[in-house]
Amino acid sequence: MTITDQPAPTRHHDAARFTRAALGRIGRYVFIGFVIAFFALPVLWLVTAPFDRAPALRLSVPEFTLRNFQVLLENPYALRSLWNSVIISLGTMAIVLVLAALASYALSRVRVPGRDLLLYTLLLLSAIVTGTAAMVPIFVLITELRLMDTYLAVVLVMAGGLLPAAIFILKDFMDNTPKSYEESARVFGASSLQILRHVVVPIARPGLATIAVWGVVQVWGNFLIPFILLRSPDQFPAAVVMFTLYTEGGQPNLALISAFSLLFSIPVVLLYLFVNKRYGFRFYGGIKS
Amino acid sequence: MPTTSPTDQLPQGPRDSAGPLRRQSKRRLDPDAAGLGRARASAFVAPAMVLIGVFLVFPALWTLYLGVTNWRLTGLAAAEPEFVGLDNYIDALTDDRFLGSLSRTFVFVIGSALAGQMVLGFTIAWLMRSAGKTMRGVVETLVLLAWILPASVIAWLWLVLLDRRDGTLNMILGTEGTAWLLEYPMQSIIAFNIFNGTAFSMLLFSSALASVPPSQLETARMSGARTLAILRDVVFPNIRGHILTVMLLVTLWTFNVFTPFLLTGGGPGQETEIFPVLIYRLALQTGELGRGAAFSLIMIVINLVIALIYLRVLRERRHT
């Protein structure tokens, strides 16, 4: 099927063109079908197995039951890990939010020499000093600080990695908020912390919400940092417990794993839907492991 | 790194330098509406800088020192690490495990990031332009889902998919009993990483394709150009910058990805021991922290090189 230079379309030419178009269309649908299969097949299990009376590795139409979630609720270890994930995510998010808000506000309102250079350098650093690349120094540092096996270690390391990008994004928001309110508040004698709390924060709320959601999503699924910094199983967040459930010896308890993986996944899916609806989706690197 | 980060806005000279000029212009330009002042501003910035300094900058610098010691997790060298100079680096150059891991990482990055995520992401973005709304919604949701689910859940789902006895893949292909993770370990983690990361390329290429002038596409189509010709002559020249951006970011992230460990643990043997997994096994499982730190530094330097190329590309894009 080569393109010919015939001046007028002949019947033969039309036929070739028609075949080509038909083949193209078929090829396209086959490809799209393949893409859907590739991305849907692994996830199907996550949707069916948790509700199956006898969850197995083999995909099947579930005989509906909620018993697997009963199994999950009765397993203190699994349930606690979800709670640990909540603590670690919210803790990191709180630190990132407060420190980034303070820093970005100050950097937005006061001219510090070399400010932009500083911001870009930090951003560059957070992109190249990833959790993976820096796991050895981070591990040794936390050992030396005697913070091994504490939430604090995980929270501080995660916050350190997320802060540069958070400050960067928030400063953009702060730059675009009107300054007249702050001026009037100042005329009435408000202190700068008061102004920040009662004037700036309400205005910058969409930006703060974005950072909060982004921070939680980054931490919630993170595996490596808690995996190397935590020792006691009752401290593990869900990401690590999920891994131990299927790697540590014996037959994996499929009732537990299926319900657990679904419950563990739901928050990020909900947060994603929320962000997508409110702001449209944006994405950033930071610590990704 | 934000995908949109402009990078070369250095502060512009006199505006920032102290002097009589500043005092004059300050009254007019001062954005400090809340009357923060330098001192309080510094106090606001300091806590964040301390945290970044201790847990991001310091570890990076510390690898310089750790990498020239024989620091170990346990034993004598744990109590009193000795200075060993460049031994760790020299050993690495002759170490089969290191070199093997580096070449595997190369295959992994080329296969899963460039050939996999980018090509698949672009193709999906291209095909979805002309697809119906429902089809587009279904495909994009699935691709995004594979991206946002926690990595340890995705790894488990792939273990189910590839399982030897009851795996979905064997069921569909009729290849009963094939142990994919043992027989095709590298192919498996490449496919796994394509599954996990294609969303980013897809999203970025979708928005890039939206910026291609429809009139140019229309003209090309009217004159009877075939799809490949349209891509080559109209689409690619228009989105060259985006392609480079995606290429560098995806390469950087894939190089730093640890999730294949969740699927194979680096095995069987060392067949899926990509660089991050090598560092983990060597430093934290075997306890050779000094050598691990040397490898960490090599990794940070490679990251830096990729990031600097990225910044350069961005700058050139701005100037043209």
Q: Which class of secondary structure composition applies to the elements of chain A?
A: mainly alpha
Average of the residue pLDDT scores of chain B: 84
Q: What is the 3D shape of chain A?
A: extended
Tell me the radius of gyration of chain A: 26 Å
H/E series of chain B, N to C? HHHHHHHHHHHHHHHHH
Residues in helix, % of chain A? over 70%
* The CATH topology of the largest domain in chain A: MetI-like fold
Give the distance, in angstroms, between the N- and C-terminal Cα atoms of chain B.
23 Å
Largest interface: A-B, 108 and 107 residues
Order of helices and strands of chain A: HHHHHHHHHHHH
With helices defined by DSSP (H or I, 4 residues minimum), what is the helix count of chain B?
17
Question: Roughly how many Å is the radius of gyration of chain B?
Answer: 25 Å
Number of extended strands of chain A:
0
Secondary-structure-based class of chain B equals mainly alpha
What is the H level of CATH, i.e. the homologous superfamily of the largest domain in chain A?
Answer: MetI-like
Distance between the termini of chain A: 47 Å
Largest sheet of chain B: none
Unreliable spans of chain B are 1-28
